[in-house]
Specification:
The chain has 523 residues and is mainly beta. Helix 2 crosses helix 3. The protein starts with 17 loop residues before the first strand and ends in a 9-residue tail after the last strand.
Length: 523
């Protein structure tokens, strides 16, 4: 324990080294020590000592400045002392920290039995934002994933670089600072200065749950449509963790009381541009439109114009968990419809189009689609009704579900499997014979392959493009109205949006039609 005089004292050699806490209180002269009853225990304890303004770097005159020791968690302005120190008394001061005791070893427990904790699977993150500049939600998550799986030691006194080489403090608030691409490593007490409070129900990817004195979590996503469980990233101990299935009503988050956390949103975070998921003539004007899901879970319809510019309207909501979707004329009435799988429930639903850019209410047409890695739709048998295909996660097989106009039959396995390395599955009538063909890229080789439909299966495959490793967003549409579906791809490295025109058998021409598409998550 620590024994103090009324005005000054010297910490024992067994205390941690002192560093500025960066916090000031109105000047006063401590006249008598006080004892915090909570600190009478064998655990490390907290305390402060007055110091000159020069020690803290604070320019404010006429204030009593405090120093704190470097503690295991640098995210709160409290001090931890070793249990070998003699007394728990600290100088009295009008200081805003009410609690003065904290366990020295703060470990993230992983929480309830249904909660899953991941410490692996690091991902490279894009460097689209600038320091202290606007940043998209997807980039915040990508930056957070960059530290995941690297076994970075938790250490308040150390730092680790982001993918661009800029270093941040290796604790929970330094981790959030890195994810937000701040110019400095903030603390849990200064993060509110970069953000504003929101309701918990409005939490989205890249927001935080911040406990002012203790800890901060980076919100990833809601795990269910009812917003009762969620996933988050945390750096409260070694290593960085990704936790899923955490109840929003749990008694604690990472061993700190639920009620201590406030939901905050970074002032410079922006919603991602809609993920374009489908092309079809939804509005009945003779031109293909683009359909997308915004970061807020809104279904957006982008009507094309003759100059390729886009105008948008919101045509649905509650789409945040429907991350596999495709467009096709499912019932053969000449209007564009939507099929989408919900990643939480596994339900496959159909929204039939009215031909004016709006849709009828959803009808469930399948279940168990949580086992599907990819989804595409098109008229594969040439009967005028759009069918659905998907690649299974467990067996890597391509399955065809044939449309009856109101439901699906099947599945029918196409081929013998081996679709594990296939990504960017897309469907369209590339050959112009009235039946939807398949195009897909090989993640290992970067080759773009065509799989023509024969009405009941596929006629082998052929490579029609190379160097598609970075072109990870594909869709198909007849953009030049020649009766053959062309390929549209966005390059994640350059952000370029390019058309690859079909002549019925190979790509006959390429044309860049846009840029800035690196933030799109799908086409």
């Amino acid at each position: 324990m620590v024994s103090t005089s009324s005005s000054s004292w010297t910490p024992s050699a067994t205390t941690w080294p002192w560093i500025a806490c960066g916090d000031c209180s109105p000047a006063r002269t401590p006249t008598s020590p006080h004892t915090d009853s909570l600190s009478r225990r064998s655990e490390p304890e907290t305390g402060f000592r007055p110091g000159p303004a020069a020690d803290t770097g604070c320019p404010l005159p006429g204030r009593a400045h405090f120093l704190r020791p470097a503690a295991p968690c640098g995210c709160f302005a409290r001090s931890l002392f070793r249990s070998s120190v003699r007394s728990s008394s600290v100088p009295s001061a009008s200081f805003r920290i009410a609690r003065t005791v904290l366990a020295a070893a703060i470990a993230v427990s992983g929480a309830a039995a249904a909660t899953a904790v991941t410490t692996t699977a690091a991902h490279a993150a894009p460097a689209a934002s600038s320091v202290d500049g606007q940043i998209s939600r997807s980039e915040v998550i990508a930056r957070a994933q960059y530290w995941l799986g690297k076994s970075i030691p938790y250490n308040q006194g150390a730092s680790y670089p982001d993918q661009g080489g800029r270093s941040y403090r290796t604790d929970c608030s330094g981790y959030v600072s890195m994810a937000w691409h701040l110019g400095t490593s903030a603390t849990t007490q200064t993060l509110p200065g970069y953000s504003h409070e929101i309701s918990r129900s409005d939490l989205r990817a890249g927001d935080i749950l911040n406990s002012f004195y203790d800890h901060v979590l980076l919100f990833d996503k809601w795990d269910d449509a009812a917003h009762t469980t969620f996933s988050y990233y945390s750096f409260g101990s070694t290593p960085v963790k990704h936790v899923t299935g955490k109840s929003i009503n749990a008694a604690e988050f990472d061993s700190h009381p639920n009620g201590d956390y406030k939901a905050l949103r970074y002032d410079k975070i922006v919603d991602d541009a809609p993920a374009y998921i489908a092309t079809h003539d939804f509005s009945g004007d003779g031109r293909d439109d683009l359909l997308g899901i915004s970061g807020a879970g809104e279904l957006k319809l982008f009507g094309t114009r003759s100059d390729l510019s886009l105008s948008s309207s919101t045509v649905g909501s509650g789409w945040a968990t429907k991350d596999m979707a495709a467009a096709t004329d499912f019932n053969g009435d000449g209007r564009g419809d939507i099929v989408a799988a919900d990643r939480v429930t596994g339900d496959l639903s159909l929204w039939t189009g009215r031909g004016d850019g709006t849709f009828n209410s959803a009808v469930k047409i399948g279940d168990g689609w949580t086992n599907m890695a990819q989804l595409a739709a098109g008229d594969f048998d040439g009967d005028g009704k759009g069918d659905v295909i998907g690649i299974t996660k467990d067996t890597a097989k391509l399955e065809l579900f044939t449309s009856t106009g109101s439901g699906l039959t099947g599945p029918k396995v196409l081929g013998t499997g081996g679709w594990a390395n296939v990504k960017n599955l897309a469907a369209g009538d590339f050959t112009g014979d009235g039946k939807a063909d398949i195009v897909a890229t090989n993640s290992a080789t970067g080759e773009l392959s065509l799989y023509p439909s024969n009405g009941s299966g596929l006629n082998g495959s052929g490579v029609i493009g190379t160097s598609f490793q970075t072109k990870d967003k594909l869709t198909m549409a007849d953009l030049n109205k020649d009766g053959k579906s062309d390929i549209v791809a966005a390059d994640r490295a350059t952000g370029d949006l390019t058309i690859y025109a079909s002549n019925g058998s190979v790509i006959s021409d390429t044309k860049k039609i846009g840029d800035g598409w690196a933030s799109m998550t799908n086409l």
